């Protein structure tokens, strides 16, 4: 995976094994370089952990809460917990400090608040129930097909 370019981040929502899903570009020109670096680190770590159906939601003009929300699925509670643990360690090692975490013991839905970026890690059934993509007006991933992480591309 290539590093994020200074100007933009392009992430396709929920690409499948066959990469037949169309990529929807998210424009992060407004985001500071450290936010782009954080998103890049998070997506890379999730890719390393074989996360499924990753969606990056740009919150510009939607909420002052954060710059982006990343929604991702894991195959099981153990997978979700392992991804959360690796992501927390990666953020700390990457110089982004200690992120706040909720839901780790149960690992049905783990929320990681890294300040400028909020990550939601779900089991697929829980993700479908809460449907955060609909709340933020983003097309949800297909729950069949076991998608992979979309690649980052400079635009």
Domain count: 1
Q: State the major sheet.
A: 5 strands, mixed
CATH homologous superfamily placement: Beta Polymerase, domain 2
CATH architecture: 2-Layer Sandwich
User: Which radius of gyration do the C-alpha atoms yield?
Assistant: 14 Å
SSE sequence, one letter per element: EEHEEHEEEHH
- The name of the CATH topology is Beta Polymerase, domain 2
Mean pLDDT: 77
Strand portion: 15-25%
Our count of helices gives 4
Which structural class do you get from the secondary structure elements?
alpha+beta
Helix content: 25-40%
In short:
Helices cover 28% and strands 20% of the residues. The chain has helices at 33-48, 77-93, 124-130, 132-135, and strands at residues 9-10, 25-26, 52-58, 68-73, 100-102, 109-113, 117-122.
Question: Describe it for me?
Answer:
Helix 1 (33-48) runs antiparallel to helix 2. It contains four helices and seven strands, in the order E-E-H-E-E-H-E-E-E-H-H. Strands 3-4-7-6-5 form a five-stranded mixed sheet. It has a two-stranded antiparallel ribbon with strand order 1-2. The model is unreliable at 1-26 (pLDDT under 50). It is 28% helix and 20% strand. A hairpin with a 3-residue loop joins strand 6 (109-113) and strand 7 (117-122). The chain has 155 residues and is α+β, with helices and mostly antiparallel strands.
List the helices and strands and how they pair.
Elements lengths: L8 E2 L14 E2 L6 H16 L3 E7 L9 E6 L3 H17 L6 E3 L6 E5 L3 E6 L1 H7 L1 H4 L20
Parallel strand pairs: 4-7
Antiparallel strand pairs: 1-2, 3-4, 5-6, 6-7
């Amino acid at each position: 995976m290539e590093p994020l370019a200074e100007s933009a981040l392009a992430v396709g929502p929920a690409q499948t094994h066959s990469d037949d899903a169309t990529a929807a570009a998210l424009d992060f020109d407004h985001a500071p370089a450290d936010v782009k670096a954080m998103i890049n680190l998070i997506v890379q770590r999730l890719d390393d952990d074989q996360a499924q159906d990753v969606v990056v939601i740009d919150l510009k003009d939607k909420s002052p809460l954060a710059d982006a929300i990343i929604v991702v699925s894991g195959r099981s509670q153990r997978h979700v917990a392992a991804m959360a643990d690796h992501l927390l360690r990666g953020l700390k090692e990457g110089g982004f400090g200690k992120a706040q975490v909720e839901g780790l013991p149960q690992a049905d839905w783990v929320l990681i608040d890294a300040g400028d970026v909020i990550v939601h890690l779900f089991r697929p059934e829980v993700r479908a129930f809460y449907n955060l993509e609909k709340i933020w007006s983003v097309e949800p991933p297909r729950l069949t097909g076991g998608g992979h992480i979309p690649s980052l591309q400079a635009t």
